[in-house]
Amino acid sequence: xxxSGRKRLQQLLDSLGRSAKHFSKAEVRCLVMLxxxxxxxxxxxxxxxxxxxxxxxxxxHCALGLTDDVLADEVFRVFDxxxxxxxxxxxxxxxxxxxxxxxxxxKIKYCFExxxxxxxGYISREEMFHMLKNTLVKQPLEEDSDEGxxxxxxxxxxxxxxxxxxxxxxxxxxxxxxxxxxLLEAFGPCLPDIK
Length: 195
Description:
The chain is mainly alpha-helical. The chain folds into 2 domains: 1-101, EF-hand (Recoverin, domain 1), CATH 1.10.238.10; 104-183, Recoverin, domain 1 (Orthogonal Bundle). Helix content is 60%, strand content 2%. It has helices at residues 2-19, 25-38, 53-64, 69-79, 89-101, 104-115, 125-135, 145-160, 170-179; strands at 122-123, 168-169. The protein has a two-stranded antiparallel sheet. Helix 4 packs across helix 6. The longest helix is centred in the N-terminal third of the chain and has 18 residues, at 2-19. It is elongated, with a radius of gyration of 19 Å.
């Protein structure tokens, strides 16, 4: 049994070494070991299969400084490609490959997916508003912050909505980010701090 377990682990490491192309084999091995240490802390629903939302969110918060719960939930959704509400070891390593070391192209696609909350292929005004409302620091004396956020959404659309249809397609988002890289996380921090 131990021999077949080692063989399965080696096959997993070989497969992840190919699919998570931004990590070395040693790094993949470390990420698998980290995953294995986190799984027992996950909810019983995920059991020995994967990471639940709470443990995933805590890990992003503690290790990578992603502190916004709303955005952490959206990151969880993007990592959880099979939509089973658990992050498998493959989703973990492949997701971190893009999250930590992805190319600009990969990060554009990833950020777009985070902001496109309903998965319809567009970032709508409502999605922008929701993200900005939850990620902007609120001032205690601010009377109506919703109006200010609506103004920000309109500014973002003016700058990024190249086809003027009132929402951002992937093509709009990609062009805007390529023209100005700072727009990659325009609707909230969903990538780790450079540090």
